[in-house]
Design a protein that fits this description.
With 120 residues, the protein is mainly alpha-helical. The protein is 65% helix and 0% strand.
Length: 120
């Protein structure tokens, strides 16, 4: 999935895409996990060093990993009430990633249900 998708009408100009837009362009769970990995890889070392231990980036392999990480950030924010712009940015991104994963799973389940009903 390109960071700068081409215009649909053949215009060769490239349009920059933000993280949230990249999530919306994902067609499956694997792509969401990949975008989440790229988001974390773009954090500066000094930013990571200033994160609380429970919010330090970790390896993400599955949709469950993304959802669990989002949940841990929400719990940290709720329990500590600390205002940290980076944590807010990360929390927002991972909340959106979790929502996108839920929508993809719902679409997949609906497609499978429709396919099962057609073949019955």
């Amino acid at each position: 999935m390109p960071i700068f998708p081409f215009e649909p009408r053949g215009d060769s100009r490239m349009i920059p895409v933000g993280w949230e837009q990249r999530l919306e362009l994902c067609d499956n769970e694997h792509e969401v996990v990949q975008v989440a990995r790229e988001f974390l890889a773009n954090l500066e070392p000094w930013e990571v060093a200033n994160l609380p231990p429970s919010c330090v980036p970790r390896k993400l392999f599955t949709a469950s990993d993304v959802s669990e990480y989002a949940f841990e950030m929400v719990c940290y924010a709720r329990d500590h009430g600390v205002v940290n712009p980076l944590l807010e940015k990360m929390g927002s991104f991972f909340a959106r990633a979790t929502i996108r994963l839920s929508r993809l799973m719902m679409t997949k389940a609906n497609d499978e249900d429709g396919h099962m009903q057609e073949s019955a």
